[in-house]
Amino acid sequence: MTQVKKKLAISELALRDGHQSLLATRMRLEDMLPICEKIDAIGYWSVEAWGGATFDTCLRYLKEGPWIRLRELKKALPNTNVQMLLRGQNLLGYRHYADDVVRKFVDMASANGVDVFRTFDAMNDLRNVRTAITQVKANGKHAEGTICYTTSPVHTLKYFVDLAKGFEDMGCDTLAIKDMAGLLTPTATKELITELKSALSIPLHLHCHSTSGVAEMVQWEAVHAGCDIIDTAISPLSGGTSHPATESMVAAFAGTEYDTGLNLEALQDVAAYFREIRKKYARFESDVTGVDTRVFINQIPGGMISNLANQLKDQGAMDKMDAVLEEIPRVRKDFGYPPLVTPTSQIVGTQAVLNVISDKKYKVITEETKSYLKGMYGKALGEINAEVQLDALGDESPISVRPADLIPDELDALTREVGDRAKSVEDVLSYAMFPTIALEFFAERESGVFKPEALDSIVSTAPSAAAPDLAPTEFNITIHGEQYHIKIEGTGHVEDDLKPYYVKVDNVLEEVYLETLTEVVPTIDGRNIDSGRVSKGSKRPKARSDSDVTTPMPGRIVAVNVEVGATVKAGDTVVTVEAMKMENPVHAPVSGTVKAIYVAVGDSVNPDECLIEIA
Predict the structure, then answer these.
(1) Mean pLDDT of the chain
(2) C-alpha count within 13 angstroms, C-beta hemisphere, residue 318
(3) Are 216 and 249 in contact (CB under 8 A)?
(4) Which of 60, 126, 138, 178 has most Cβ atoms within 10 angstroms of its Cβ?
(5) Taking a C-beta distance cutoff of 8 angstroms, is the pair 606, 613 a contact?
C-alpha cells in the first residue's frame, strides 16, 4: 500500500523575527523589496513581515511609515500570505487599549495587507485576545491563536491543552505554540504536540527559537508527532537567538512523507541575498550568536539578555549580571510565574535589575510592576507573593475583571488629541501605540526631511552648536605600528575622580578606569553649571540632594510634565523615562517648587544624574 505524503508547511521569518532576533529589528524596507519576488515564488505557507517590534522600530529609528512598509510588502508578495504578530489587547504598544482601538487596528491591518494574524497574550489570558480574534474573523482573515510556552510548577500539560481548546472555541483557524525563549525539549515537544493533536481539529504551528541549542530536534519531533507548520529563518538570519535555518529543515524532511516541496536551489538564491545584506547591519549584531543554555534556568528571551547587559553597563554594574540572572526566577515566582515575553519579560527583567542594584529588594518598584501586580495585564496563573503585592499597591486592591473592561472607548479622544498632525486613521493608530515617537515622526514627515539612524557605528566628532563637546565612542588607534579597534560599550558611576568605562578592544570587553585631570565646564541654556555638580560625561548635574529627581534606571525621556516655577507634591509624576520598552513615570521625591529642569524629551539619562531640582 502506497503511503500518502503529508506536506509540511513552512513560515519564513526573515522579514520580521529573523532580523528582530539578530539585528535589533533594524532591517530597512529598501533591503527587503529587491528579494521579495524570489521569496514570493518559493511557496511558503506564510511570510512573517510585520508586527512584533517592527512597528516601533520603523517609527523610532528607521523613519519609515510602518503602514507604508506593510502595503509595499503585500504588493511585493502577491502570492504569499503576509503574517503579523499581534499582542492581543496590547496590540503593538506596551499597554492595554480600549476595544474600539483594537477593532480599528485589526481593520486597518487587514485593509493594508495582513492575511494571517498570530495573536497572543503575554499572560495566556484568553480574555485579552478575544476582541482581536473576533475582529480578525470579521475581516475574513486567518486567525491564529497562540500559546506562550513556558515551564513552571503551575504550567502543566493539561493547562496547555485546555488553553488550546479555548482558542479553538473562539474560532481560530490554526493554533501556534510560541516558544519565545527556546525552552521546549524534544521529549516535551512530542508529549505536547501529541496531546494537542488528539484534542484539537485545527492545524498546529510551531515557533521556537534556537537559543538553547535544541530547536532543530524540537521541530523534528514536533513534525513526527503531527505538527503541520513550522517557523524557520533563511540561514544568514538563523541560529543564536533566531530560529532553525529554512534550508536545513527543508533538506532534513526532503524525501520523507513530510517533504515540504520547497526548492532548495531557489532558497540558496534568497540566502545569498541576505548573506550580503546582513553585512550592512553589523552595528546591530547580537552579542548572542551561539547557544546559551542559561535560558533553561532564567527563561529570558535572547533579546532581553542584551537589554539587561546594557542596563548594567550604564550603571557600572556589569559584575552583577549573574546576580540578575539568578534574581529573575525569584521575581517571576513572586509574580505568579508569568511567561516571559513582551511585556512581562521587560517587567520582570527590569524589576530584577532594580532588586540587585538596590540595597533592599523591591525598594524601587516600577509603575509597570505595580500595574502587573494590580492585575492590569491580566490574571497570573500562579499565586502572587502577597507581601510584594501589598508593598506595591498599598491601599489599592487588585482587579479581577478583564483589564480592558476598565478602559472606555478612546479612539475618538485620540483622534482629537493628535489633531491635524495625523493625516489618516493609520496615523491615529500609530499615535495610540507610541505617542511621543509618532509625533516626532509626523514632524519630520511634515518638514520633508527624515533623519533615520545611521547604519555605520562611527560617531561624528565634528563640533556643532548643539553638541560642541562630543567625543567618539568607536575608533581605531595605532601604537608602534599596531592598529587596535576601540569601542566604548558603556560607563558606570563616578567613584571619587575615577569613572569606569566598558571598552571593547578588538572585540574583547575590558573594564578600564579613567581619571579626569582637566575638563571643560559645560553649560545649560548658555549658563555655566558648578563643575562640582557636573556628572562627568553628561551636561547635567550629579544628584546630591534627596530633593533631586533621578531615574532608577538608564533610559530616554519621553515626557516632561512640569515647568520651572511649578508647585509639586511628593509623588507627582514630573518626567517619564522609557527603558527596556517600558514607560516609567518618575515622581517628585518631595513637595516644593521646581527650581531647574535639566532634561528635554529625547534626552538619554542615567541614574546618577539630577533631572529636576526641587526647592
Answers:
(1) 87
(2) 17
(3) yes
(4) 178
(5) no
